[in-house]
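Good morning,

Attaching, inline, the backbone tokens for the sequence recovery test we're adding to the shared suite. The designed sequence is right after.
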């Protein structure tokens, strides 16, 4: 019956999501607790941070994407990044990364910009072209950037 097929597919997908969630948590938890800090260009990682025990330190853009960060806001953010020794700041592929790239540029080689997929899937073949792929792609990128071991997520 068609209902049984849909139910079987839904149950299979839920199982895949639960396994991915466990693998993502395991990888992200290889990052030392004091390093579990996210600086992003836009406030899109709050639920992710809450789920996996990370802190969103700050965002480059104010919560309204229609406004820009002020020079004073950027200076304050840069000072926080330096004082905490944050090794990476995270940008989203679908948003203009000019501000976050400028922050990273002013900090020299102390911080790298790592691009994540958040609200949209990646192009075919990007590794983030499915929802599960997107979750794993972002977890691998965050884990690597913050000094953890994402090997449980490959494959």
């Amino acid at each position: 019956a068609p209902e049984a097929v849909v139910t079987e597919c839904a149950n299979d997908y839920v199982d895949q999501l639960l396994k991915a969630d466990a693998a993502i948590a395991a990888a992200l938890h290889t990052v030392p607790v004091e390093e579990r800090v996210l600086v992003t260009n836009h406030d899109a990682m709050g639920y992710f941070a809450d789920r996996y025990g990370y802190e969103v330190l700050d965002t480059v853009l104010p919560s309204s994407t229609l406004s820009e960060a002020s020079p004073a806001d950027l200076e304050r953010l840069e000072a926080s990044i330096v004082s905490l020794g944050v090794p990476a700041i995270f940008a989203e592929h679908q948003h203009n990364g000019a501000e976050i790239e400028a922050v990273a540029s002013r900090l020299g080689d102390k911080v790298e910009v790592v691009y994540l997929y958040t609200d949209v899937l990646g192009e075919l073949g990007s590794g983030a072209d499915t929802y599960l792929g997107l979750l794993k792609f972002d977890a691998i990128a965050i884990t690597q950037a913050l000094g953890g071991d994402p090997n449980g997520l490959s494959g």
